[in-house]
Design a protein that fits this description.
The structure holds two protein chains of two kinds. Chain A is an all-alpha fold. Chain A has one domain. Chain A is built from 17 helices and no strands. In chain A, helix 5 packs antiparallel against helix 6, helix 6 packs antiparallel against helix 7 and helix 9 runs antiparallel to helix 10. Chain A is globular and about 65 Å long. Chain B is mostly helical. The chains are: A mainly alpha, B mainly alpha. The interface between A and B is large, with 48 and 27 residues.
Amino acid sequence: MAEGALALPQVRTASPVSRFIKLIPGVLMLAAIGYLGKFIEQSISAYAKASHLHIPNIEYVLWAILIGLAVSNTIGIPAVFRPGVATYEFWLKAGIVLLGSRFLLGDVLRLGGLSLTLVVLELAIAFTLMTLLGRWFKLKPKLTSLLAVGSSVCGVSAIIATKGAIDADDEDSSYAIAAILAIGAISLFTFPLIGHWLHMSDRAFGMWAGLAVDNTAEATAAGALYSDAAAKIAVLAKTTRNAMIGFVVLGYAIYWASRGQAQAVGNKAAFLWQKFPKFVLGFLLVSILATAAVFNKEQLGSLANLSRWAFLLTFAGVGLKTNIRELKAQGLRPFAVGAIGEGAIALVTLGMVMVAATAFNL
Amino acid sequence: MAETQEQPKSFQLSLDWLAVLTAVALALVVKLGLIHKVPW
């Protein structure tokens, strides 16, 4: 999961009403940028149609991200908007839960099972690769652990969870977060280009994006840049990857504790539950309700559209939270390890997905 | 070796549940027909 650099410290001590009010300007900013992206896409499309011109369709997703990037990297985000902008991850999770309405439980189990198999392979490859690269580039071992977790599981949230569990330095985690965010931003734009170049099917591309793009917001956006159907599969594959976070963090916690460099884990089941992303349960619940025909066709359409609106706010937030200057300031070595490792992981997962696409007719 | 202390509930954790509750509440609102049709 992604939550980027925008935290909410300034609203933690205020009353709930005051906190809520402080969120409003930033949420409106997300909505305005997201809607502007949608408006630009529709305007260009209408103009092309009226003028009988053949202009390639640029999805609202890309416009929303680009506008967010432009704002964040030129004028910056004024303090009054920051708490609300940081809610983009909330919209992402709510959107994923609502997206459950577009999956029958059988599809979730079938595609989720396939995703899980590929995720386990991806985890093994990613850990081995990142550990070797970390040694090769002489990174601090805990920084290597953080980069391995960030690139293999689910980006920033996984790094934060692991940082606490293995007692890593703040400096190491900020390096790892910066590297993972920068690579996530690059993947977001390059993956759809590669997918089109290889003529990948929506399902195969979605599976690849879900397996290899770090941070759920970026994986969802990469899928949505390809197609609506690809976004759906990308979310499912990424959610499966997210569900593994507890096991991976627990593994690293036990490893570092055995070396006397982190506190031992007491109740392992409680630890796993604490780290488990609960929105996965919401996604499954809504999928079960949809499978049980609780909603009619029109209601399912409405839930799918609510999910799209939630993602619209998320995509605006993806652009707004990416500050290129801050990422550059973090130094080159962790980024180089992350980029080489991620490039290799992207290639290996692409190969796995290509094989799975042929074998399972994705 | 000291055991890991129970970490304070993070924003991350409550955010997950808040997102689930919000989404389920929205689904209920749609189911009950309080929102007839959500456009896109």
